[in-house]
Amino acid sequence: MSAGTLGFIGVGDMGGPMAGRLMDAGYSLVIHDVREDATAPLAARGATVLDNPKAVADSVETIIVSLPTPDVVRAVALGDSGIIHGSAVRRYVDLSTTGAVMAVEISTALSGKGVECLDSPVSGGVRGAEA
Q: Residue 21 — pLDDT band, cuts 50, 70, 90?
């Protein structure tokens, strides 16, 4: 994938509008979400939909996640088919609002694999994401 391609995992109510803004800015996206209805609008605009977080992490160097709960963040980042097992990923940006304890756990694990981590929680709900 080109340097202008980003991964985005969690393209639902909040992630979807933010991912759309990245596409508006000219980025190509490789995306994953457990809900097909969440990925469909971005796929219609040209985003590539992959089956799991590892597939995204095998495809791009930078992955942005926007996920609902700490357990989901942990599974996406560190699970059996998680980002940690990807071969291309070098940067992980977490927009989820799941707290410092989760951010440290994920950062510690991913840093051990040479992945830089940025905890960047987004507030404002869906309205804020859309704005």
A: very high
